[in-house]
Write a structure and sequence with these properties.
With 401 residues, the protein is of the alpha/beta class. It folds into two domains: 72-308, Type I PLP-dependent aspartate aminotransferase-like (Major domain) (Aspartate Aminotransferase, domain 2), CATH 3.40.640.10; 312-397, Aspartate Aminotransferase, domain 1 (Alpha-Beta Complex). The protein contains 13 helices and 15 strands. The strands form four sheets. Strands 2-8-7-6-5-3-4 form a seven-stranded mixed beta sheet, sandwiched between helices. Strands 11-12-15-14 form a four-stranded antiparallel beta sheet. Helix 1 (5-13) crosses helix 3, helix 3 packs parallel to helix 10 and helix 11 runs parallel beside helix 13. The chain is globular and about 75 Å long. Pfam families: Aminotran_5. GO terms for molecular function: transaminase activity. Residues 74-358 form the Aminotransferase class V domain. InterPro entries: Aminotrans_V_dom, PyrdxlP-dep_Trfase, PyrdxlP-dep_Trfase_major, PyrdxlP-dep_Trfase_small, TAT_signal.
């Protein structure tokens, strides 16, 4: 079923130049992106880099030809690159459609809600997961919701809420709402001491802030790739700690999860007592993989992850902090209520404003500025191609609150 390591390395060596990235000498890096106007909405959807677009174009040009793209080699390399980025091993990673899909797979593999017990989560978690945990509560789980104080979830609230019988703690490492970042290692220490496992949504952390999944002790994590990984919709990663696999129940049985497949039904097949002899892989892919995934998205990720690794997330985080400080000072000077706690390092700053979309939408569009506009709040998400002038253009376009 799987390519040999030699075949993977041979195919990888033959990858086109377009699939290789290099770090910019200085930031902001405007030359790597085609961005119109003042784009400060990368936390919703990051613009693709020119190099990534060229890699995808090359993939489509070669797909199905005699020079077919070595996609299996690319998949292996993408896993290796993402593993390095987040402090994991490739065997602990499975490709998934989205963060939500990964989170649901963890719930299923833990046999919830049938197994019962307590789940602890908080309201700074992704709002799309509210439905999941409210439904699990309706089906008999004891679900505890923690609420923020001053934009943060206090670690002592987790200490009180994670009681004996807690099966799972579920959180967003960086909140999509206001950019608050949990002390994931401390949450895991508390949870593990009381027999609970921890899941982290890392969609606003991976590629945005330094992550060490092994160092944190987290049991499961998931992300899509269209935000700070500079990928596309329909492809992401699910992480499952290697030493937690024996605590999971296999709920999915897909072709991509197989290590061995020998049919006994086609001409010239070897005889057998079954229609096929199969054996599942013993890694995360074996537990969670299903069918086909976005090859074009994986090719795009190959370039983007190489770029991020060459750039260095530590370097990116340090460079970006003065921009966030400038943004906060400017927003507060105009009278806006900043919901992001001071000291947050993620590239995400949220303000609470009644009727924000109605009040700001047309004004920002006319100024050529794009941010995340919601009904009663707005969010600013600068990336590596933004500079001080982008922050200033936004502040100039915003009226006084």
């Amino acid at each position: 079923m799987e390519m040999s390591r030699r075949a993977v390395l041979t195919a990888t060596a033959a990858l086109p130049v377009a699939a290789r990235a290099g770090a910019p000498k200085k930031l902001p890096d405007r030359s790597a992106f085609d961005v119109e106007g003042t784009y400060l909405d990368s936390g919703t959807m990051h613009p693709p880099a020119r190099g990534a677009r060229a890699a995808v174009a090359d993939y489509f040009a070669r797909r199905g030809t005699a020079a077919d793209y070595p996609i299996h080699a690319v998949e292996e390399r993408v896993k290796e690159r993402f593993a390095r980025l987040v402090g994991a091993s490739p065997a602990e990673l499975a490709f998934v459609q989205s963060t939500t899909a990964g989170e649901q797979m963890v719930i299923d593999a833990l046999d919830l809600p049938r197994a019962g017990g307590r789940i602890v989560t908080d309201t700074l978690h992704f709002f799309g997961s509210f439905y999941l945990y409210e439904e699990l509560a309706r089906r008999g789980m004891d679900v505890a919701w923690l609420r923020p104080r001053d934009g943060r979830i206090a670690i002592e609230d987790y200490e009180r809420a994670i009681t004996p019988g807690t099966r799972l703690v579920s959180l967003s490492l960086v909140s999509t709402y206001n950019g608050f970042e949990h002390d994931l290692k401390r949450v895991c220490e508390i949870a593990h001491a009381r027999g609970a496992l921890v899941y982290a949504d890392i969609i606003h952390a991976a590629g945005a802030v330094p992550i060490d999944l092994h160092g944190s002790g987290v049991d499961f994590a998931a992300t899509a790739s269209y935000k700070w990984l500079m990928g596309d919709f329909g492809i992401g990663f699910l992480y499952a700690r290697a030493d937690r696999m024996d605590r999971l129940t296999r709920k999915r049985f897909g072709y991509y999860g197989l290590a061995r497949f020998t049919p006994h039904v086609y001409p010239f097949d070897p005889p057998g007592d079954t229609v096929a002899d199969v054996a599942a892989r013993d890694d995360a892919e074996g537990m969670f993989a299903m069918g086909t995934r976005s090859h074009a998205g994986i090719v795009q990720l190959d370039w983007s992850l190489g770029y991020l690794l060459d750039l260095g997330v530590d370097r990116l985080t340090a460079w970006r902090q003065p921009l966030l400080d400038r943004l906060r000072v400017g927003l507060e000077a105009k009278g806006y209520s900043v919901a992001t706690p001071p000291g947050c390092r993620a590239p995400l700053m949220t303000c609470v404003l009644a009727d924000a979309r109605a009040k700001l939408g047309e004004r920002l569009t006319n100024a050529g500025v794009r941010i995340t506009l919601s009904k009663n709040r707005f969010r600013v998400c600068p990336s590596m191609f933004n500079g001080e002038q982008d922050i200033d253009r936004l502040l100039d376009a915003l009226p006084r609150a």
